[in-house]
C-alpha cells in the first residue's frame, strides 16, 4: 500500500514522510507520540486498520481492515492556539476536496466534523494541538481524517447501517491509495494557507448542510435546542433558541 501511495505522490515534497501500518491502535495516538519525538511537519501516518480509532467526545471510529483511509498528519504551525480555532473546519474542507479529486464525489459537511453524502456519514475529522509550555505557541497540530471507502451496506455494524455510507456506494472509482495521496496533496496546500481564515471558512460554509436546520447540542449537562443561523469566524455555530436569544456552540 505504501508504494502505491508514493507512486501517486511522485516528486511531492511529503512523499518520504508517509508512514504505513497494516494495523495500529490509533493513527492520532501515534502521531502525537511522533510529534513529541520531533518528526518534521508533513509527517503522515496511515493504517489499513485501527483497533482503537477515535471520534469526537470519546466516541470510537469504526476502522475495519482494508475498508477505508485512516490518516493522521502532523503540522508545525508555530503560532498562537487562538489562531487555529478553525483547524477542524480547515481539515474538513481538505477532506471534501480530496474526495472530489480522487472519486469525483461531492460530499457535504455536517457541523462540525462529519463528511456526509445526503444524510449519511462518509467520514470524520479529529484534530488536536500540542502547546510548547515555554513559548505558549502551537508546537504541533494533529489532523486525523477517516473516510469510508470500500464498504457495502452489510459491511457496517448493524447499528451504523442506516447512518453510514462509503465511496464505493456512490462512486465509479474508489482507490484508497489515490484518496490517501489526494488528502496528502490537499493537506500540503492547506499548510501554506492555514491562516487565510476567511477563505477557508467561506469554503466550509458552502459545504455545511447544518445551516438553517433545527439542532440539539450539549453544553455541560444541559441539552439545548435551536436553529443553526450562521458560522462565526472560527467555525462556531450561531444558534437561535426558542426564546429568540442566540448562543454560539464553539468548535471543540
Count the DSSP helices. 5
The geometry reads as globular
SS-derived structural category: alpha+beta
Strand order of the largest sheet: 1-2-3-7-6-5-4
**Average pLDDT metric:** 92
- SSE string, helices as H and strands as E: HEHEEHEEEEHHEEEE
Unreliable stretches covering 5 or more consecutive residues:
none
Q: Using only CA atoms, what is the Rg?
A: 18 Å
Q: Please give the number of β-strands.
A: 11
User: Roughly how much helix do the residues carry, as a percent range?
Assistant: 10-25%
What summary fits the major beta sheet? Answer: 7 strands, mixed
Oligomer: single chain
- Share in β-strands: 25-35%
Separation of termini? 33 Å
Task: Give a verbal description of the structure.
By secondary structure, the protein is an alpha+beta fold. It has 5 helices and 11 strands; from the N terminus they run αβαββαββββααββββ. The mean pLDDT is about 90.
Write the SSE topology.
Elements lengths: L1 H7 L9 E4 L5 H10 L6 E5 L20 E8 L11 H17 L4 E3 L3 E4 L2 E12 L6 E11 L27 H16 L5 H11 L6 E6 L2 E10 L5 E5 L4 E4 L3
Parallel strand pairs: 1-2
Antiparallel strand pairs: 2-3, 3-7, 4-5, 5-6, 6-7, 8-9, 9-10, 10-11
Helix pairs in contact: 1-4, 3-4, 3-5
Task: List key phrases describing it.
252 residues, alpha+beta, seven-stranded mixed beta sheet, 5 helices, 11 strands, 24% helix, globular
Gist of the model:
The protein has five helices and eleven strands; from the N terminus they run αβαββαββββααββββ. It has 252 residues and is an alpha+beta fold. A hairpin with a 2-residue loop joins β5 and β6.
Amino acid at each position: 500500500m505504501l508504494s502505491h501511495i508514493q507512486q501517486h505522490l511522485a516528486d511531492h515534497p511529503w512523499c518520504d514522510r508517509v508512514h504505513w501500518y497494516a494495523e495500529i491502535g490509533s493513527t492520532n495516538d501515534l502521531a502525537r507520540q511522533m510529534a513529541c519525538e520531533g518528526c518534521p511537519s508533513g509527517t503522515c501516518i496511515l493504517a489499513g486498520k485501527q483497533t482503537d480509532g477515535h471520534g469526537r467526545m470519546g466516541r470510537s471510529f469504526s476502522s475495519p481492515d482494508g475498508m477505508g483511509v485512516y490518516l493522521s498528519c502532523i503540522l508545525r504551525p508555530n503560532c498562537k492556539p487562538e489562531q487555529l480555532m478553525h483547524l477542524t473546519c480547515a481539515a474538513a474542507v481538505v477532506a471534501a476536496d480530496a474526495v472530489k479529486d480522487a472519486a469525483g464525489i461531492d460530499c457535504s459537511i455536517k457541523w462540525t466534523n462529519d463528511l456526509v453524502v445526503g444524510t449519511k456519514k462518509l467520514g470524520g475529522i479529529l484534530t488536536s494541538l500540542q502547546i510548547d509550555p515555554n513559548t505558549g505557541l502551537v508546537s504541533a497540530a494533529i489532523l486525523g481524517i477517516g473516510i469510508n471507502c470500500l464498504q457495502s451496506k452489510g459491511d457496517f455494524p448493524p447499528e451504523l447501517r442506516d447512518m453510514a455510507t462509503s465511496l464505493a456506494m456512490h462512486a465509479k472509482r474508489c482507490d484508497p491509495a489515490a484518496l490517501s495521496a489526494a488528502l496528502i496533496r490537499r493537506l500540503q496546500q492547506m499548510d501554506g494557507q492555514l491562516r487565510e481564515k476567511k477563505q477557508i471558512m467561506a469554503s466550509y460554509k458552502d459545504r455545511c448542510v447544518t445551516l438553517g436546520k433545527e439542532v440539539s447540542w450539549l453544553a455541560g449537562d444541559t441539552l439545548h435546542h435551536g436553529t443553526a443561523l450562521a458560522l462565526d469566524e472560527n467555525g462556531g455555530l450561531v444558534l437561535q433558541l426558542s426564546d429568540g436569544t442566540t448562543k454560539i456552540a464553539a468548535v471543540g
